[in-house]
Each structure stands twice: as C-alpha cells, then as structure tokens.
Amino acid sequence: MCPQAYDPGDEGAKMSFRDAMSYGDYLHLDALLAQQHPLTEAHDEMLFVIQHQTSELWMKLAIHELGAAREALKRNDMAAMFKMMARVSRIFEQLNNAWDVLRTMTPSEYTHFREALGPSSGFQSYQYRMIEYVLGNRNPNMLEPHAHEPEVHAMLSEELDRPSFYDEVISHLFRIVDGPNVALPEPQLRSPHVADPEVQARWKVVYEDIEKYWNLYELGEKLVDIEDYFRRWRFNHVTTVERIIGFKRGTGGTSGVAYLRKMLGVELFPELWNLRGEL
User: Fold this and answer.
1) Which residues contact 162 (CB under 8 A, 6 or more apart)?
2) 235 Cβ contact list (under 8 Å, min separation 6)
3) DSSP string, 174-205
4) Angle made by CA atoms 110, 113, 118, in degrees to the nearest 5
5) What angle is formed at CA 178 by the lines to CA 172 and CA 182, rounded to 5 degrees?
6) DSSP annotation of 268
7) What is the CA radius of gyration of the chain?
8) Tens of pLDDT along 116-151?
9) Cα separation of 148 and 143, whole Å?
10) What DSSP character marks residue 254?
11) Labelling 110: which of 6, 59, 203, 278 has CA 20 to 30 A away?
12) Domain 41-278 of CATH type 1.20.58.480
C-alpha cells in the first residue's frame, strides 16, 4: 500500500492563489525570469548573463543601503547607519562569492560567445559607478560611457554634485573631535578623494581613545570592512578575467587585466589605512 502524500493544506497552508497574491506575483518572477536572452547557442552564455544580472541586483541593494546610511548619518542615527553598513559588507561578500561560479567557465567555453558581446562590458555598469561615486572615488571621466543614456548620466552627475558618504563621515568626525563650531573640510565633489593629513589626524585621536570616541571608532572599522570586501571584489574580478581571457583586451576596449590591476590601487578611505602604521 502506497503511503499517502503529504498535503500542506491539511495544516492550514493556502494552496489556491486564483484570487490572492502568490510568491511569483509579489516578486514579478515571470518578468524577472524572462530577462535572460543569450545571443548564441553556447551553453555557458546563460551562466554569463545570470552572473552579471544577479550582480546588478546586489549592487542595486548596496546603493539603496549606502544612500540610506548617508541620510542616517546626517540625522545622527548611528545605530541605523551601522546596521546598513554591515549589510553592505555582506552584499559585497555575496558579490565576491559569485566569481566562484563564473570561474567554472573555461577559456574555451567563453570563446564560443565572446564575440556576440560586441563592445559591451562590465566597465559600463552605471550601478558600479554609482557605488564608487557614493563612497568617494569620483572620477568625472567615467561619466562619458553613460552619455548615451541621459537619465543615467544625469543621475550620476547629480551624485557628483553632492557630498559623498565619506565626505559626510569626515564632517561628522570633525564635529565630534573638534566641536560643533569647527570649520569643516570642503567636500571633494567632482574628483576622487585624496588622503588628507588633517582627516588622518582626527582619526588618530579617535583610535587612541576608543572609549571616548567609541561610535567614531566603530564607524571607522565599518568603513574598513566595506573597503576590505570591495577590494576583494576587485581582486576576484581581476583573477577571474585573467583566468578566462588572459591578457587580451577587454570587450569594452580597456586593456583588460592591466586596467583592472590599476584599479586595485585605488583607496576609498586612505586615511583609515594609513593610520594603521602610526598606532
């Protein structure tokens, strides 16, 4: 005699969704899962598409959290900001783990569809650019790849005209260490953040008296966490590209691995890293 199949409905689970919102309805799964359109018959192109689409979804969440963290800092809601910053670090960890899946694709498999990509490249990801801009790595030359999309270009340009998250952190740092009437450093708007000895001096005060400045100390370490994971993301990108295409030029026209290696030297919060040698 065959055992009776388990029926979740017997325990009260809703089984009919003709007139109610379902899981797929809430997530718009029909639309989401219809967005994968490989251009060739190559088996591994589906992996390539989904890898980059899911990365863009994680980046969307990172931007959402970083924007909210900046606003929380401006209203001095440190607890909420710390929670959001911790989440951003975990998001970057997820992005790092995704490279492990892409690395299962061999160079030979990638050649079966690489030409179909044309000049498209992750170099053109406007969400990646937004993350850099929000954190403070503000290269205005990187607006140009988005000139063909006026709304995107305007959004990125608008971000360049407001203080970055790190600019807001620095203002907060000065107000706490020096007092509310201190003259604040000018935000570095349309240029990458450059290490400032005065900023580093304030961070040193914090790290030499962490009991007095515990919230600032925790803020500094959470920034280091974010950059640590962000650097690993960049490094894993370089390693994956070198493993799959060697030293060929990138599809977007960059020098490929050489360009990505150059990006490894970019520091988001240099004062916090330089400080370590002084303590």
Assistant:
1) 189
2) 264
3) HHHHH-TTSPPPPP--SS-----HHHHHHHHH
4) 115
5) 80
6) S
7) 23
8) 998 888 878 999 999 999 999 999 998 999 999 999
9) 10
10) S
11) 59
12) yes
**Angle between helix 165-178 and helix 214-245 axes, rounded to 10 deg:** 150
What is the H or E stretch that residue 7 is in? none
pLDDT at 69 over 90: yes
How far apart, in whole angstroms, are the C-alpha atoms of residue 149 and residue 95? 26
Query: Residue 260: what pLDDT?
Result: 67
- Read off the pLDDT of residues 90-121 as tens digits, 9 standing for 90 and up: 999 999 999 999 999 999 998 999 999 988 88
Q: Helix and strand tally (H, E) in the chain?
A: 12, 0
84: how many CB neighbours lie within 10 A of its CB? 22
pLDDT band at 19 (very low <50, low <70, confident <90, very high): confident
d(CA 272, CA 249): 34
Q: Which helix (H) or strand (E) holds 75?
A: none
Extract the runs of DSSP E, i.e. beta strands, from the chain.
Answer: none
**Structure tokens given for 113:** 């569809």
DSSP-derived 3-state class of residue 243: helix
Q: What span, in angstroms and rounded, lies between the C-alpha atoms of 91 and 85?
A: 10
- Spatial contact of 149 and 170, defined as CB atoms under 8 Å apart: no
Parse the chain into domains and list their residue ranges.
41-278
CB count within 10 Å of CB 230 equals 22
Residue whose C-alpha is closest to residue 170's, from 261, 83, 25, 268? 268
In three-state secondary structure terms, 72 is: helix
